[in-house]
Amino acid sequence: MSAISTIPEYAYASPLGFHARNIQQFIRHHPTPVSSDPARREWTTQESQQMISSMFLGIGNTPGAVIMANLFIINKTRDVDRICPSCHRIYRVGEAPRAYPSFDEFVNRPRRTSEVHAKVEEEQDLSGACCGPCFNALSEQDWEENDCGAEVAELMRLASQNGFTLRYSRPEEQRETGIKTVWEKLEEVK
Fold it and tell me: From the CB of residue 49, how many other CB atoms can be counted at a distance below 10 Å?
């Protein structure tokens, strides 16, 4: 992975892109407009937000549950901008994971045409999961090998090549952060 310019404290880099360390700060510094689509705007109503809050907080009133509820609303009300609810990678629907030379280049990247398998893009739009491993962690099921197995294998190869590995978060991490998958440096793995 090439050298990364100064990264704000609310984000961190992996070979798969930038991740939000603090979602509220990221949103504050990089706001994205709420969609004009009536179906997406429906998620902004107080009734919808109360339903989402009770759905996530009914599992347990933890910081992670609050984060997951907020991410669900953020992802459902935006046209293409997403924050993965599993690993907190910041991306756009249809965008494949990749490292960027700097945070500024990442923030100012152009909108690309779809770079991912149709099933991955559909899941990005529906659940907010950015890639196969994150979808697996959120849904506790696997995508069929013929749909995106090659994408998952490529992500794992890319991460490994750059000294990273994927692990599922510990229960206490999930309660505090909502993160289910962690892309971490191999030397940090215990």
Answer: 16
Tens-place pLDDT, residues 77-128: 999 999 999 899 999 998 888 888 899 999 898 887 788 878 888 888 888 9
Residue 189 — φ and ψ, nearest 5°?
Answer: -75, 130
Report whether 167 contacts 182 (CB < 8 A).
yes
Q: How far apart are CA 34 and CA 27, in angstroms?
A: 12
Tokens 């149709």, residue? Answer: 118
Rounded to whole angstroms, the Cα distance separating 61 from 36 reads 31
Q: Which residues contact 152 (CB under 8 A, 6 or more apart)?
A: 131, 132, 133, 143
How much is the pTM?
0.80
**H/E segment holding residue 11:** strand 11-14
User: Quick check: 89 and 17 in contact, CB under 8 A?
Assistant: yes
Read off the tokens for 114: 């779809």
The C-alpha R_g of the chain, in whole angstroms, comes to: 16
**Backbone dihedral region for residue 132 (phi beyond 0: left; psi -120 to 50: alpha; all else: beta):** alpha
CA distance 153 to 59: 32
